[in-house]
Amino acid sequence: AFSVVSKLLSQRKLDLLDELVSAEVLQVLKEKISLLPDNHRDALAADIDAIMYTTEGDVRIYYDDDGRKFVSILMRFWYLNGANLPDEVPGETKVFQIVFGDESTKEKRHLLTANYEFQREFTEGAKPDWTITWIEHPRLLE
């Protein structure tokens, strides 16, 4: 899901995210994506083969006021991306770079991070669909 959504964000195909991302998050994304420079937008895309590491950041089970049961999982992703980003990005935070090949054919890639929160209702009879309720690409999508 992370790879699919990040690619759709990068391609500005936000209309295809209706069933995957909550309406509130989608509205915020529409505003942010329209303001991004092309190189930052390109850096959002995470090819599934370029995902280097994933870990859960937080797992919560909670009930709403009507007694419905929900599970929320915050996932953190580290992925390689070849977008043309400066060595230093806004906020003076260093972006890691990995160089493949020798000096004459080197290919520079950035090791980027993203945080996505997935939520699903587990109340009996509820549809078994996961929804993304938070998306963060630090220093790219702010």
UniProtKB/TrEMBL annotation:
Signal peptide: none annotated. One of its GO terms (biological process) is protein insertion into mitochondrial inner membrane from matrix. One of its GO terms (cellular component) is mitochondrial inner membrane. GO terms for molecular function: ribosome binding. This is MAIP1 protein. It comes from Phoenicopterus ruber ruber.
